[in-house]
Amino acid sequence: MRGSFVCVRTEALTFIERNSMPKTKQKTDHYQLVADQLLALLQKGTVPWTRGWATTPYCNAHSGHRYSGLNPVLAEVSVMTRGYESTLFVGFKQAKEMGLTMTKGSKATWLRLGGTGKTEAVDPKTGETKEKYYCFQKWIAVYNLDCFSDEDAPVKISALIERYRGEPNTAPRIDEAERLIEAQQAEIVFGGNRACYSPKKDRLHLPTYESFSAPEAYYATAIHELSHRTGHESRLARDLTVAKGSPGYAFEELIANMSAAFVCSVLGIKPDLEHHASYLASWMRLITDDKQAFFRAYRLAQAAADLLLENAGLKEEPAAPEAL
After folding, report:
1. SS3 of 173, please?
2. pLDDT by residue (tens digit) across 118-134?
3. Nearest alpha-carbon partner for 76 in 294, 288, 290
4. Which of 173, 180, 165 is nearest to 55 (CA)?
5. Other CB atoms closer than 10 Å to residue 239's CB: what's the count?
6. Cβ–Cβ contacts within 10 Å for residue 49, how many?
7. Are 139 and 112 in contact, with CB atoms under 8 Å apart?
8. From CA 300, how far away is CA 81, in angstroms rounded?
9. Nearest by Cα to 223 from 183, 180, 252, 194
10. Dmax of the chain from CA atoms?
11. Residue 133's beta-bridge partner residues?
């Protein structure tokens, strides 16, 4: 068999859409929905990707599947903007199977499903069967458990929450952070009152450990600057020549902030970074002008975090494609 690889995109059709959505209804722009929610949070001075979802898993209450990749961030955005208490979600059809009753006016949370598939086709000229691989991405509608009542459910929502409650992280925290920093083999100059990364010299400047208010603040700051360092031309080759105050500068800061949050989550450290109003305003302008900027920044931030974790031998195996 000979194989080929093509890439296609599909749009998700949820249970509700297939059965009740009018054919003429305008297609939902899910990127815009997420961008609007992010802007609402940033206007309040809240940065969703700095919250520690590692010890409170976002997962599906029906299958137990723990969300990975971008989906914990999307779930967190939904929880924060709508004031949900639960971190558990289910699909519409799954909720019916569980005996849950949806509250009137409940809104879907949109997650991203992605993966690869394979089809076989017979070549009409040769009669040979060929394999064709394809990748797909689509939006999946799920609902937070706060959207349901459980009067008729055999398993109550309280029991589901207890079932999937995350265990506290008992692994060494500070020692692991030290090992991660050392594993990068970065040139670091300690002293002064500012933290920065110089792309030209490929060098970090950090205040001394003792000058920080708490260990978490020190490690989060160091990992933030190391995230900038991953963009050097010898590593992930991002554009680090952008001028301060420009959209490109705000974009790089967004990447470094999310990357630091992802790495700190793995280490069990709360990302304790000060988010200046100027940064928040820059991110707001960036997302307002380009609704997909956050998604591009996420991909680059994940690559930066993966590199830092891989250097330290802490990178987890890739998760299987997302399930409902």
Report:
1. coil
2. 788 888 888 888 888 77
3. 294
4. 165
5. 11
6. 23
7. yes
8. 24
9. 180
10. 74
11. 5, 118
Q: Tell how strand 148-149 and strand 101-102 pair up.
A: antiparallel
Beta bridge partners of 5: 133
CA neighbor of 226 nearest in space, from 287, 318, 312 = 312
Cα(187)–Cα(145) distance, rounded to whole angstroms?
48
Measure the CA–CA gap between 44 and 40, rounded to whole angstroms: 7
Residue-wise DSSP of 188-249: EEE-SS--EEETTTTEEEE--GGGSSSHHHHHHHHHHHHHHHTTSTTTT-----PPTTSHHH
pLDDT at 158 over 80: yes
Cα(79)–Cα(74) distance, rounded to whole angstroms? 9
| Tokens 């949050």 sit on residue | 261
CA distance 219 to 180: 10
Distance CA 253, CA 45 (A): 16
Q: Is the pTM of this model over 0.70?
A: no
User: Quick one: which H or E segment has residue 137?
Assistant: strand 129-144
Give the residue carrying structure tokens 């000979």. Answer: 2
Is residue 206 predicted with pLDDT exceeding 60? Answer: yes
* 3-class state of residue 175 by DSSP: helix
The distance in angstroms from the start CA to the end CA of the chain is: 32
